[in-house]
Amino acid sequence: MKPLQTDITQASREPRPPTRALIVSVDFGEPEFQAQTDEFVMLAKGAGADIVDILIAKRARPDAALFVGSGKAEEIALAAAAGQAELVLFNHNLSPAQQRNLERALKLRVVDRVALILDIFALRAHSHEGKLQVELAQLQHLATRLTRMWSHLERQRGGIGMRGPGESQLEMDRRMIGDKVRYLRERLGKLERQRQTQRRSRARGGAFSVSLVGYTNAGKSTLFNALTRAEVYAADQLFATLDTTTRRIWIEGAGSVVVSDTVGFIRDLPHTLIAAFRATLEETVHADLLLHVVDASSPQRDEQIAEVDKVLEEIGAADIPRILVYNKIDRSSHEAGAERDEHGTISRVFVSAIERTGLDALRGAIVEASQADPVVLGNNSDDPRFRTQSSSASSAAGARS
Ligand SMILES: Nc1nc2c(ncn2[C@@H]2O[C@H](COP(=O)(O)OP(=O)(O)OP(=O)(O)O)[C@@H](O)[C@H]2O)c(=O)[nH]1
Ligand SMILES: [Mg+2]
């Protein structure tokens, strides 16, 4: 007999009925426009949208009030009505005013790119910590909208003499959001401290730590499973992974190695999300080596590499030794194996996580990195013990002269 579903949180985790959605994507002349629109369609499907139509507009710059022109807005309204859309998804980040004006003009709910990504994260978060992080990011996104909506109203009403119940409602909303944000931060802070303790005890064990990072859908989880024989969820969808999973493996020559699979990155990742996921990304920030997994078969792979580099910089992981792992070579023209840079250090490894080719070369690269970069010293590149042989030799020579 099936139990009755009375638990709301349980029910909200059930697959949602698809929402009929119209997509709007505006071409500002960037070369990546088509790829970015395709990616957005995949995000929309990942959030459970049933896409009724995709409208493309061309503009030099966004309209301040509506993002698109008023003629385009009418076209959107007609297409939405024809397709019986319940929702309009914008492949862009809208200002609170643009969102509000569009909702008024279209008489439909409008969701922008940040809100859509937050929605997918909410759908996919499984761990307690992951759920708290997403909730925090959502509240922060909402809070900026409430504040700005309020200042807009204030201007409109002229302030003095016009203050009424509307104001106190907004103030109450704001206070409640503020309280909740503080509460979530405290809880997350506690979890972060627990994590640090765990990491310290692992570090005492002297294991070399490796973190898999990369653009969403690059194949990080599949590679993690291939390396560790784990069974982490991997799927052809954006943001399949939200929680960091860590496994300890033994690699001959490197000894005990701690490997972490992490959340994927995406172009223009919302800042609120990066901030909220700081604790999860700590594993990455403190790793001894980053394996930057790249979808070698994607025409966008170079832009994706640049986006990941940008996020790594933002979270303070730019100085960690890094190896590019070109994955999915079964679908590209690369050969399995490793490639060295001009210093003789392995810089790129070519693998297929699915066909499990190139994994020995990858393990070899991890061994070399672990020998070049002793764990016990951490990964502080300012530490003189960390300089490469040649640079410490030349600085010693400089001191003598
Ligand atoms: N052809 C091919 N497909 C692969 C390979 N590795 C992974 N995939 C596929 O790529 C898709 C994404 O794989 P995941 O391992 O979930 O990717 P991820 O980087 O963990 O993605 P997120 O967790 O969403 O950021 C899945 O459909 C995998 O089956 C590979 O070597 N070759
Ligand atoms: Mg994954």
TrEMBL record:
Binding site for Mg(2+): S221, T241
Subunit structure comment from the entry: Monomer. Associates with the 50S ribosomal subunit.
Subcellular location: Cytoplasm
NCBIfam families: GTP_HflX
PANTHER family: GTP-BINDING PROTEIN 6-RELATED, GTP-BINDING PROTEIN HFLX
InterPro entries associated with the record: G_HFLX_dom, GTP-bd, GTP-bd_M, GTPase_HflX, GTPase_HflX_N, GTPase_HflX_N_sf, P-loop_NTPase
Name of protein: GTPase HflX
Organism name: Pigmentiphaga humi
